[in-house]
Design a protein that fits this description.
Elements lengths: L21 H9 L3 E6 L5 H16 L4 E6 L2 H18 L8 E3 L35 E4 L4 E6 L13 E4 L7 H8 L6 H4 L7 E6 L22 H31 L2 H25 L6 E6 L5 H14 L5 H5 L21 E2 L31 E6 L3 E12 L2 E13 L4 H11 L7 E5 L14 H10 L10 E4 L9 H13 L7 E5 L4 H9 L2 E4 L2 E4 L11 H4 L2 H10 L2 H7 L7 H4 L1 H4 L1
Parallel strand pairs: 1-7, 1-8, 2-5, 2-6, 6-7, 9-15, 10-13, 12-15, 13-14
Antiparallel strand pairs: 3-4, 4-5, 10-11, 11-12, 16-17
Helix pairs in contact: 2-3, 6-7, 10-11, 13-15
Length: 593
Amino acid sequence: MSHRKRVNPEKTELAHVQFQNLFAQLIALVMPRRLFAVLGRGSAKTTDVQVERLIEVMYDMPGAPCVWVADTFSNLAANILPAVLEGLERKGFKEGVHYVVEKEPPTFTEREKEKLPGWLKPHFWKPFNRLVSYKRTIVFFTGMNIRFGSLDRPSTLAGASYVYVFGDEAKYFKEEKIANLMKAVRGYRTQYGNSVFYRGCSFTTDMPDTSHVGEDDWILRECANMNVDALLLVIKTGLVANEALHEYVAAKEEWLKNKSMENLTVCRNKLRTANLWRARWKELRLLDRASTLFIQASSYVNADILTEGWFADAIAARLNDLQTAILSRRPTLQSGDRFYSALAEHHFYFDGIDEGAYERFGLLEKEDCRVLRYLNRKRPLMLGVDFGNMCSLSIAQEDTVGGEDFIRIVKFMYTLAPEYIAELGQKFRDYFAPMECKVVQLYYDRAGNSYKKVGLDQAGQLKKAIEFDERGMRTGWVVTMMSMNQGNIGQPEEYAFMQVFLGGKNPALPGVLIDAYAAKILKLSLENARTIVKSGIVYKDKRSEKLPIDQLPRRSTNPSDSFKYLVMTKRLRAIVKGKAPLPPAIADPLFRK
């Protein structure tokens, strides 16, 4: 067998090195029209897998209209879009050079474009589709443009045709909404019908857990649409094409060294062979039976980057989502293991985002409380706070629905160390700046009163951070401390209280409604909290709070504690214990006179 030359990427100027884990390489080797990937957390789903496919689509369908969807615009702007931009940056794409965000692309004369490759000239910074507005749109230098939208706001995606769809965190997508979106993937067949990616999609997520309200496992059913034999043929052909490319680059490198005619002939022959195998690879990918790839892998695929310590921390903490979010195994936990076992779907609402209010915000702009549909800006706010490495803030209002009283949690906020109380106060002030009523009732742990006499109590610091800005000027907010002289709320009492409070069987108690999108982190914390039984007494498993800082928001019980302090008021605790406190009006001294 003859020796096939390979190029050393680290020693040649004809190639550059980029890291990809083996599964990302496999996906790139298949590069199918339709990708459905269930990958563990930290596996570079967005920054590598999705962005690599985005770049391929950008070159293969210049000028094409594409769409990127998320469950909510808030998640899109806060989490997904930054990851996309980070991935582009890692792969050498610069904003203002290779793409523009929410801006009209630059224009060039034909003379300025005369040295461009023939395939690029007609598309250079020119989308094929007509863009009335560049709002929530990224335009690339090839003319390919991506419109960003959310499934909770269908109007942002309506009235347009797309040739490709990207979507991350697909477990939060409702199957019927995805089906409706895919109907808009149509048109432009004359221009892009010969592309492998025409009318395709890329959906990634970690493992869905349908015991969690709002999660859907539709993506798992795509496994049945995969033809393994056809994909294996694509992989084998792709490997040969890659070898041929290596030989061509090695031959070109040799020719550049000595410039001989013999080396030039070899180089041209190798290029012809490489192009031939690449054409065969593309031809196989165009076949319908090779168009779908479903792949499932754990976080271990990215172990070289995550390091051994990352996995050791997750295993030591005995995380309740270890099997699903990290190992990508289907969930087996039963509801009885949950600390908040009475929590159910009716405690959440999914229409809390006001679509119209979002029109005033751009992709890179921060939203404020005007997007919250059920927030009454003329009424006071109730805050439940838990302090620590992660400071958690559950924000609510009293509400009445159908004649019944509810505590409606409209928003959840948090800070992570080194950010602390001052930063949490600023986030609150910025987000709720449009409020007309600037009155706050603050509920907190007994520890929040510690060191009050010397002015170092945490609750007092948060009160100050809300009532005064960083310059010491009054903000107009007035904070009332609601947990003064409050005793400790033990975990066994919390467990018993929540069984009754969330159970909805006591008419003297209000119900609770939680915004599934604006308070998603709180939702995850409540759903994921698990029990520990010691000597027949139920406690909350708090080991997740010892995880690395960046893992706390989606995996720790910290947010659930802010919920505890918010709803476990003295009055409601007394009702659950069988004591009958006076109704608020009768208890008012003015009423009793």
